[in-house]
Design goal:
The chain is an alpha/beta fold. It folds into 2 domains: about 210 residues, P-loop containing nucleotide triphosphate hydrolases (Rossmann fold), CATH 3.40.50; about 210 residues, Nucleotidyltransferase, domain 5, CATH 3.30.420.240. The chain is about 40% helix and about 15% strand. The chain is built from 18 helices and 19 strands. The chain has an 8-stranded mixed sheet with strand order 3-4-5-2-6-7-1-8, sandwiched between helices. Strands 9, 10, 11, 12, 13 and 14 form a 6-stranded mixed sheet that branches. The protein is elongated and about 95 Å long.
Length: about 525
């Protein structure tokens, strides 16, 4: 007899794992769609009103007229190019535009680029972080959290909805930014290469596009300059120019700063015209070091760029009077640390200060004209590695072509620095961003004597012309001075010349390496 188990069989069997997962995914998708629809309704009023977005969502209480103009023009013209003086809120404007574009478009790629990588890492993206942290994202149904959606140089609101930093040398990635909507942010755009602008135009062909290019002006050359000054060739760009007068009127503190810079730089100087007047200008032909070369060196600088296992040399320009400043320029290879300045210290105080700084320095090149001689003597007594540099003495050094000599060592050293800063030199000097240093390096002028020698203005002549002493520029110049007795030192063209201490460091031959000669008087 067969006995059958008559216990009841349950009809409530557990659902398979795949079914649970499918239900959960469907629920999440439905929830996300509902959130997306709600967010879309909340965002809708701001799609056509970026000014309201900046005010309501980012919490900006004061939008200047030219900033409002640029935001509104993005909707009507799609491509906006704005130039203006330094310090008027251009980078803040770029950050606002990036955040608006990401907020109101559900599928968008927004590459941001600049003339220098440092402009992105130290200015634009910190500005994006600042305004993102203040934004009332919940009012438009969005969520932006640090280290989640908002990373150091990337903001991602969805799989196909993000902004990111991109080097301006990466043409392929610029052109590859295809999406339903593309937004290009060009910050400090004056020296962005034409190929990058063209690559961006190529990406516009596949969808809806916006571009906001902003900058202080530079030399009258390049695509940014062409767009600003040749509207017939670039009719699709809307041009905005912010004048010095407008900046003085609406930017707090600008007028006072501009007045100070008029004294420091001179109103006719290229640096004043670029940074204060907001005009395109280049250095005069008799300027030793062009402004654009110094700006390029400052653009290359990063705080962590110091080479390892490389000796450090101080250039020490010692103040001669109470109004001048003693300046130390620490150089490691071709990278300079921020300059060290102090004023109104006597010989022993200055010597003690420099001695304390030399704990991590291999050599100090000291200008021994005036009280610098006493500082040198004191440090030499202490057994420190110091070199006396007398920039007024004669020298047999010649320029990189071998054609021109110099009336004195100061002329030779400044011209040697010019040759290093020349874009084709390959030295890639990195100078810390510093307005005083920028002004000092671009101040000296030069002439060619009847004997065929280059004569650079003396410090006293510059003081008489500008009313200030180029102490910071001279310290950088001195940082490249080294004794000719060092291994591999170049021979002077005239072995009877009185210069016993100095040549231009780290160079083969004369001042330059074996490379084609550039023009010397422009």
């Amino acid at each position: 007899m067969i006995q059958i188990n008559s216990s009841p069989i349950s009809s409530q069997r557990p659902a398979p794992a795949w079914m649970k997962q499918a239900v959960a995914e469907a629920w999440r998708a439905a929830k996300q769609q509902a959130i997306s629809r709600q967010s879309s309704r909340l965002i809708e009023p701001y799609r056509r009103d970026p000014v309201a977005f900046v005010h309501d969502i980012l919490g900006v209480t004061e939008i200047r007229p030219y900033q409002e103009h640029a935001l509104s023009a993005l909707l009507e013209h799609r491509r906006v190019c704005m130039r203006g003086p330094h310090g008027i809120g251009k980078t803040a404007l770029e950050a606002w535009a990036v955040l608006w574009a990401l907020a109101v478009h559900e599928e968008i790629k927004a590459p941001t680029t600049a003339s220098a990588w440092r402009q992105l890492t130290e200015y634009l993206w910190p500005e994006i972080h600042k305004w993102s942290s203040r934004a009332k994202w919940d009012r438009i149904g969005l969520r932006v959290r640090p280290e989640r959606e908002l990373l150091k140089r990337r903001l991602q609101l969805g799989d196909n909805r993000f902004a990111f930093a991109l080097a301006s040398s990466d043409e392929a990635k610029i052109e590859g930014a295809h999406s339903a909507v593309v937004f290009y942010g060009f910050d400090e755009a004056k020296t962005i290469a034409a190929e990058i602008w063209d690559a961006a135009e190529g990406a516009f062909s596949t969808g809806e596009g916006y571009a906001l290019a902003i900058s202080t002006p530079g030399e009258p050359a390049g695509r940014f300059y062409d767009i600003q000054t040749n509207r017939r060739s670039y009719p699709h760009w809307h041009i905005i120019r912010v004048t010095e007068a407008e900046a003085r009127r609406v930017v707090p503190g600008f007028a006072q700063w501009a007045d100070l810079m008029a004294v420091q730089w001179g109103e006719q100087s290229a640096v004043y015209q670029n940074r204060v007047a907001g005009e395109f200008a280049q250095s005069e032909t008799d300027t030793v070091i062009p402004l654009a070369w110094v700006e390029a060196a400052m653009d290359r600088w990063t705080p962590d760029g110091r080479p390892s296992d490389t000796p450090t040399t101080f250039g020490a320009d010692i103040a001669r009077t109470g109004e001048n400043k003693t300046v130390f320029a620490p150089r490691t290879g071709n990278w300079f640390a921020p300059l060290i300045r102090h004023s109104k210290r006597d010989t022993m105080e200055t010597a003690g200060f420099l001695a304390s700084e030399m704990i991590s320095v291999d050599w100090a090149n000291i200008d021994v004209i005036g009280i610098g001689a006493g500082v040198f003597d004191r440090l030499r007594e202490q057994g420190l590695n110091v070199r006396p540099i007398n920039v007024g003495e004669a020298t047999g050094l010649r320029d990189k072509t071998g054609r021109f000599g110099f009336v004195n060592l100061r002329s030779a050293l400044l011209w040697g620095l010019r040759e290093r800063l020349e874009p084709e030199s390959g030295d890639d000097i990195a100078l810390p961003p510093d307005d005083d240093l920028l002004a000092d390096l671009t101040a000296p002028k030069w002439t060619l004597t009847s004997a065929g020698k280059i004569k650079v203005e003396s410090k006293d002549e510059i003081v008489k012309r500008l009313g200030r002493s180029p102490d910071s520029g001279d310290a950088v110049m001195l940082a490249y001075a080294a004794p000719e007795s060092m291994p591999g030192a170049a021979r002077e063209a005239n072995p009877k010349a009185r210069s016993k201490f100095v040549r231009s460091d780290l160079q083969g031959g004369r001042f330059g390496r074996d490379r084609p000669a550039g023009h010397h008087r422009r």
